[in-house]
Amino acid sequence: MNFLFLAPEVSVIVLALAVLLLDLVVRNKTALATIALVGLVAPLGFTIAIWNQQGTFQEALAVDPFSVFFKVFFLGIAALGLLSAIEYSDRFPRYRGEFFALILSAVAGMMLLSSATELMTTYISIELMSISFYALAGFLKDQKSTEASMKYLLLGALSSAILLYGMALFYGLTGETTYAALARELGSPVSQDRAVLLLALSLVIAGFGFKVSAVPFQMWTPDVYEGAPTPITALLSVGSKAAAFAAILRFFWIALPDTFPIDWSVLWVALSILTMTFGNIAALVQSNIKRMLAYSSVAQAGYVLLGLAVQTEFGRSAVLFYLLAYAVTNLGAFAAVIAISNRIDSDEITAYNGMAKRAPFLAAALTLCLISLTGLPPAAGFFAKFYLFSAAVQVGLAWVVVIAVINSAVSAYYYLRIVRAMYLLPADQETAVSAAPPTVAAVALASIGVIVMFLLANPLIALSDLASRTLAP
Amino acid sequence: MGLLTVLLFLPVAGAIALLLLPRGNDRLVRIVTAVVTGVDLVLAGIVFFTYNVSAGGIQFTERLAWVRIPTTPQFNVDYYLGVDGLSTPLVLLTAFLSFLAVFISWNAIDTRVREYHILLLLLQTGVLGVFMALDFFLFFLFWEVELIPMYLLIGIWGSGRRMYAATKFLIYTLAGSAFMLVGIMLLYFNSTQATFDMFALANQNYAVPLKTLMFFFILTAFAVKLPVWPLHTWLPDAHGDAPTAISVLLAGVLLKMGAYGIFRILLMIFPDQMRTYAPLLVTIAVISIIYGALVTIMQPDMKRLVAYSSVSHMGYVLLGVAGGVTGLNMVGLNGAALQMFTHGTITGLLFAAVGVVYHKAHTRQIADFGGIAARMPVVATVFLIAGLGSLGLPALAGFVAELLIFLGSYQAYAWAAVLGAFGVLLATGYIMFMYRRVFFGPLNPRWAHLTDADPVDMVPLFALVAVIVLVGVYPTVLTRVFESGLQPILARLGG
Predict the structure, then answer these.
(1) What average pLDDT does range A130-158 have in this prediction?
(2) How many Å apart are CA B261 and CA B281, to the nearest integer?
(3) Most exposed: B239, B263, B266, B430, by fewest CB within 10 Å?
(4) Cβ contacts of residue B162 below 8 Å, gap of 6+?
(5) How does pLDDT run across A396-420, given as a tens digit for each residue?
(6) What is the pTM of this model?
(7) Which chain A residues are within 8 Å of B146, Cβ to Cβ?
(8) ipTM for the complex?
(9) What count of other Cβ atoms lies within 10 Å of the Cβ of residue B445?
(10) Which domain holds residue A412?
(11) Residue ending a domain, choose from A185, A219, A245
């Protein structure tokens, strides 16, 4: 047993517990956030220490550059999320310790999920992440937040049950739980009962589909995104989504053999078209910025699903790069929304009118992030979309890409509604809007990231490429 | 760092410099922008005049690897710049009009001056990039870079239904370029070389149905931008409601992106499809010319009148190209290329002159005016020159271009050339009609205190008049450059 393989996740859990315990003694609660942030250096160090290793921990957790890619990714998300949550957590001063600790445990769940290469481990990792988020969604304790938490819990439990049922069917068919063994068994002609396989596969897709808010499993998304504390919405929209995509990639590529009798690519294509089209159309009519970003995240998931349908390593690497670009961009957008909404105490898009004058930096940064989400240069989203759609065209899915690019053009309409409110419309009041330094730092870091990932796309695409090619059982 | 890179990114550097300037000093912002665009104009002039016409081909080449993903399938993007006889005049035109835009905006823009000039500079980089990029990825990138600055420039500083116009402009262009994006990817992944290099792609062999599909995908983007009937409806809104300097740039150089795309991409990569579908293009061109001119006559608003006339004038570009392709003659192609330049200067001048009148009188309705030539002799004279240029009077730039287009297309499509010439008659109608009602007749007493253009307004007016006359009298200065760029294209067509 190589415990170093488990060290990144263990150190995050230890950090979470340390934050909980220190909460009892430390009076200055911002110090807690600082500890949590600085403490992330330890798991980062452990992760980097195993970056070129290939192996498993007890056949349950795979260690490969693929999982290292995601772990560093999640730690970065955690850092940006914590930064933007510091000021926001003033809204529940008594529970800050628990808040930061739960964020860390959710991140531990994501990290485990990117490595999980066995059915039970996958399920437990998902639950670790999800249960943390159920609690986090309700932290504001107002009506909407409580509703969000409750809704997420109920529907989340339902989706977990569906996922578990699918996994149970796979286990029943093969008698195996590790992905490597599953692939071996499913490849043999004995277990090729198409009907049961199709049922099992559909249940697993439905379960994962809930986590990535693919249509028709997206109904929880807008309410939860609107009601949850905004930093949690940010983490949900990038972290839990990316973790679920990591798990999907590993399951579909490792557990399902090449000889698998069902062409799952078609399923992802169908889900992708539904998801991006529904997300974009629904986003058009939103008046609340958090709900709009919720539907936008549904649409963005639709593009990533298209990447899943591309059954090549190019497609996989495009999914990875897309998730990276999307995460930085969306975190930046949410950080700016946190900074602005915290002061004006409203999430309505009309409240953003004239924001370019009241908060020039935040407005410019938010605009950059929205440009990136639209997929326009000079931003990370441009490269990510180009690369992802290229992968689809390369395998002959050009017709789906046509649908996707038209969707992108439609999405420009609602993303630019925010830009329009901020730059084109007059403000109803002139008072300047300023944010606390940590939030501004999060916005600035993400904005720089959006530009840098555009200019220096090459090393990042190369990393995604490497990670996607080393996906191992 | 090569000359083109400096020329391309100097405006961005200028925009960053503007960010660092102290608040509230609008005059300084204008001066800095004028200096930056002025230096850029000098650089563009150096490129234009040191370009070796007799040698021809791509010059001032700069090539750097940007993205290199060596695993199969390879994904390679180059930062690949270069200019030839086709692009150097357009680079010069862009730098020239951007420089003049600062002066056109001098009195007209008095709110959020710093933001305005930052966006103006970013816009300039986007447009210059389109004319210099030789890597299709890079071309597409710059094609899209220009959108957001233009959206904001129309939306913030425009008039009338500015937000509607800005959004419509953006969505139309995006929808068009969406198809181009798919076309580019199909070109890349169906070639044997992993490159976005336009010249390498031009030498690839593709199956005919696939190539036809790609042709129409990419044509869509250019047809929206040019624009041709029936994809033109964003143009009158955007041009009509944009601030004056932005209308000048829209008509002057942004429409040329579409025309340039037809030359650079469609003629070079899809010569067979261009030949096959030339009759279709000619038909669209003639409809654009006649329909555009008829709608122009109906306009009660001076600015919208000038805006609509662009639909008609860009139809000539398409007519010249399609006529030249079928007739395999240089004349039509050269006329179309020249029309890109002359339309940029003439319509730019019309917009600038309308802008001066509007700034003084705060109305653009033709019916509100009458006899203001007495109060604004300079503007009236300049307006007359621009109007005569627009309707194609000899010795002015527009005449040469349109004559070449008719000569070139007459061989292959006599009916189209005749109908096109009819468009010139209509143009005479709308220009003279407007001119008479605005500048002649008894002076409307409302305008008794109207003053002539300010000195700073005269800079762009006189500069544009000078260029229009120069090109009209001595068109060779441009045609020989265009010809060197068109020679290889004609050779590919088999002429």
Answers:
(1) 93
(2) 15
(3) B266
(4) A424, B154, B155, B156, B241, B242
(5) 999 999 999 999 999 999 999 999 9
(6) 0.94
(7) none
(8) 0.92
(9) 9
(10) 263-473
(11) A245
